[in-house]
Automatic annotation (TrEMBL):
Keywords: Hydrolase
Protein name: 1,4-dihydroxy-2-naphthoyl-CoA hydrolase
GO molecular function: fatty acyl-CoA hydrolase activity
Keyword field contains Cell membrane: no
């Protein structure tokens, strides 16, 4: 799924700094993971509030990355202005599938599919209904199975 075509996708501007690059002057691959983590965090913040509040109000609920598939398409360089695009793809019982892209203008540099599990005390738990309603985009599938 291409999150960049979704009108409900979250967009986070990010600037590439020296600390994000490797010795070649290109963005180090792990820096993209940090950029995308910020994108997921800001999506959640915009839709459901601060994660620390959610953690407190939901008795210790946290989100952990369960699976991530990444395609590195083109490199970014220091001072590039990027946009991290994040969209909910599917909600399941205890997880959500997100599509992400790191863009430089209209050009996709990185694409990722991410499955994030809802966890409390080290065990998967069902996404709270309030959060499920907030995160479900129009037309997105939502399953009642735990995964």
């Amino acid at each position: 799924m291409d999150p960049t075509t979704r009108p409900d996708a979250h967009r986070l501007p990010v600037r590439v700094y020296y600390e994000d690059t490797d010795f070649s002057g290109f963005v180090y691959h792990a820096s993209y993971l940090r950029f995308m983590e910020r994108g997921r965090t800001e999506l959640l913040r915009d839709l459901a509030g601060d994660q620390s509040d959610l953690h407190r109000d939901a008795d210790g609920l946290v989100f952990v990355v369960r699976r991530m598939e990444i395609d590195y398409l083109k490199p970014a360089r220091m001072d590039d202005a990027l946009t991290i695009v994040t969209a909910t793809r599917e909600l399941r019982g205890a997880s959500m599938h997100l599509s992400q892209a790191v863009m430089r203008g209209e050009e996709a540099l990185v694409r990722a599919e991410v499955v994030v599990a809802c966890v409390r005390g080290g065990r998967a738990i069902r996404l709270p209904e309030r959060l499920r309603q907030t995160l479900t985009p129009a037309g997105a599938p939502s399953a009642d199975t735990n995964s």
